[in-house]
Amino acid sequence: MMSGRPKPLPLLSTHSGRDRMTCLYRCANACDHPVPNTSANPYLGDLVRAGLTRRGLVRLGAAGALVLGVGAGSQAGTRPARAAAAPGQAAPHPAGALTFTPVPPNTLDAVIVPHGYDSAVVIRWGDPVLPGAPAFDVHRQSAERQAAQFGYNNDFLAVLPLGRDGRRALLVSNHEYTNEELMFPGFTTQEAMSVEQVRVAMAAHGMSVVELERVGRTGRWRPARGDRLPYNRRITMLASPFRFTGPAAGSPLLRTAEDPAGTTPIGTLNNCSGGVTPWGTVLSGEENFNQYFVGGDQAPEDLKPKLARYGISTTARYPSGSRRWERAQERFDLARHPHEAHRFGWIVEVDPQDPHGRPRKHTAMGRFKHEGANVIVARSGHVVAYMGDDERFDYLYKFVSAKRFVPGNRGHNLTLLESGTLYVAKLSGDSPAAEIDGTGRLPSDGAFDGTGRWIKLASGHRSYVPGMSVVEVLTFTRLAGDAVGATKLDRPEDVQPSLVTGKIYAALTNNTNRGVGSYPGVDEANPRSPNRHGQILEIVEDGGDHTGETFTWSLPIVCGDPEDPSTYFAGYDKRAVSPISCPDNVAFDRTGNLWIATDGNALGSNDGLFATAIEGPERGRLKQFLTVPPGAETCGPFLTGDDRSVFVAVQHPGEISGATVDDPASTWPDGDFAKPAVVVTWRPDGCPIGT
Ligand code: FEO
Ligand code: CA
Ligand code: CA
Questions:
Q1: In the chain, what are the domain boundaries?
Q2: 383 C-alpha vs ligand 1 centroid, how far in Å?
Q3: pLDDT in tens, 123-152
Q4: Quick one: which of 154, 222, 286, 468 is 20 to 30 A from 459 by CA?
Q5: Interval between CA 497 and ligand 2 midpoint (Å)
Q6: Residue 65's pLDDT is what?
Q7: What is the distance between the alpha carbons of residues 428 and 47, in angstroms, rounded to a whole number?
């Protein structure tokens, strides 16, 4: 019987604000394992040079009264999704003022939106995706059923226009990981799960494509109805074939017994964030793929250091948190199939307009724990993708296509990510190292800022890393970054260029090991020790050239409680900003305001979605737009191109240690037990979101 008894709020662990249960299922307790980056790269505190003072003006003002508006079901409509700007496309709009009343920190078991807004569930775990899919029954779940239903733990979202009338769209969602304790009534241990339950979990991973229809003329959307939904699709870990592209495709490192050609991996793993390309495809990052493999202790000796650099245990057959997928498919046993792990950790490109097409994994974009990839078209017409490797002390990358974007030539543009140049970032601070003391206190020039270089790792079929072939650089990209002295960052998550200004924003989510014990110390880009709340990194390419190799950077937002002196909000009066902790995903609205979703609030509140102007006098005036239920993180987010609707993925609601299906920590969204779900928020008065 369900007691509905609320579980205690997530305990603040030593590593982040996430609950232990999330740590186990999302990344197999990565924080309990040694940091995989043991390279001896210098950190940027060693590299000081003179620079300009750059501090925003302090502005006075007081936070307004806080008003709650709990999202209920109602109706609304949307617009076509945004895609990256093509060359020559006019950009700058004046920043729209963010006038909504902020949602205060809270621990309510609901999605909370500002007064004057409404929200509704679009689709939840188990809802039908393929025509004829059976209704969800948690007591009768099977792999076959799950493979036709919406997967678990929705993360990245894209909403792409379908047709020209603004009434239909395709929702593309990642399904990052599963939590079997919250999926199967009576769950005891991973080892005790039946093989069929393992297969259910494999089917609940991957991606979904779901046709949506606008509700009336509102900003609300719902799944389209009917028997003919030709675009609806599930991509799962069970049997969905992919195709490798780029220089490493077909290489010996990607060959396995099942795929001796090394060209056709099966499935996609731990898809976290992503992006939308100007040609209407979706990019998806394969992130914590390491946790799905066993038998690393029996892998070939020469591969062990490479496996370890990606967080795969090479000392235990069954590392803690093992999902035991090798019981369903032998390929997850590295003792027998040591190259299978190389077939994950890539950027995936899916064309939602081609429901029978084979998605691709682009080896030219490198292999790491990809958070996601976001694309902008440079002035030259080359396509540039910015990417983060989400691990403590790992790196920031960019990819520049070899070919140019051709407006209107979709067939050509679909090939742009198959060849190009891969770079990793090296950042230098401009303040004396002694002024970066770990407290978060601003240095005397008034800013955490400096310059940076993009270091070339590989271009086409040529390696720029001594001692590594191009295939090795692309397959073991972390090791290439180590070799060239890339900057160790505080978990680079989403990285996205603003299509209004061309500036790039990266969420550095946290790093509780920064400056602790023998771990690397603080530097100007990672200035707090330990770093529990994260920061936003802003990058400006020199000359506005996204294909260039030099840039400047700063930290406009150093997150946390505004009353904490280590926080910074671009110089804005901290009495007028919302507390924020652990930024994860970033997005922009039509006018260029920066939207930030959080994962792992270490301040005691539920996670949320925030927005701030990032240009002009309101820069740094951060306000919380919504919050999600306990245990959940806020993913997505996706603002439709007309700014009438904002979609968020509520991932792992109720994921609090001790919770089960029968004794849930959250009963959102249906009042029975917790289900990950996609939510849309809109204004019933039809005005743009946020303003
Ligand atoms: Fe899946 Fe980096 O969060
Ligand atoms: Ca400085
Ligand atoms: Ca994420």
A1: 13-33+41-287+345-682
A2: 24
A3: 999 999 999 999 999 999 999 999 999 999
A4: 286
A5: 22
A6: 25
A7: 5
How many A from CA of 403 to the centre of ligand 1?
30
Average pLDDT over residues 439-457: 98
Q: Return the number of other C-beta atoms located less than 10 Å from residue 416's C-beta.
A: 26
CA of 674 to the centre of ligand 3 (A): 20
Nearest atom in ligand 1 to 273's CA: 1
Q: Whose CA is nearest to atom 1 of ligand 1?
A: 272
Q: What pLDDT digit, counting tens, does each position of 199-229 carry? A: 999 999 999 999 999 999 999 999 999 889 9
pLDDT for the residue numbered 57: 19
| Index of the ligand 1 atom closest to the CA of residue 272 | 1
In the chain, the largest separation of any two C-alpha atoms, in whole Å, equals 66
Q: Which atom of ligand 1 is nearest to the CA of 287?
A: 1
Neighbours of ion ligand 2 (CB under 5 A): 430-431, 443, 445, 447, 449
**Ligand having the closest approach to the CA of 441:** 2
pLDDT tens, position by position, 271-300: 999 999 999 999 999 999 999 999 999 999
Ligand 1 centre and the CA of 218: distance in Å? 32
Q: Which residues line ligand 1 (CB under 6 A)?
A: 176, 272, 287, 371, 390, 493, 584
Q: What is the residue type of 360?
A: R
**Block residue for tokens 């060209």:** 263
Atom of ligand 1 lying closest to residue 390 CA: 2
309-339 pLDDT, tens digit per residue, is 999 999 999 998 899 999 999 999 999 999 9
On average, the pLDDT of the chain sits at 90
CA distances, 262 to each of 238, 246, 249, 252 (Å): 18, 12, 6, 7
- CA distances from residue 48 to 41, 43, 428, 453 in whole angstroms, order as listed: 16, 11, 6, 14
Q: How confident is the model at residue 250 (pLDDT cuts 50, 70, 90)?
A: very high
Cα–Cα distance list, 616 to 93, 94, 102, 208, 671 (Å): 12, 9, 20, 39, 44
Reported confidence tier of residue 41, pLDDT bands at 50, 70, 90: low
Residue-wise DSSP of 633-680? EEEEEEE-TTSSEEEEEEESTT--TT--SSS-S--TTTTSS---EEEE
- What length is written for the chain? 691
Residue 359 CA, ligand 3 centroid: distance in Å = 21
pTM for this predicted structure: 0.90
Residue 75 has pLDDT above 50, yes or no: no
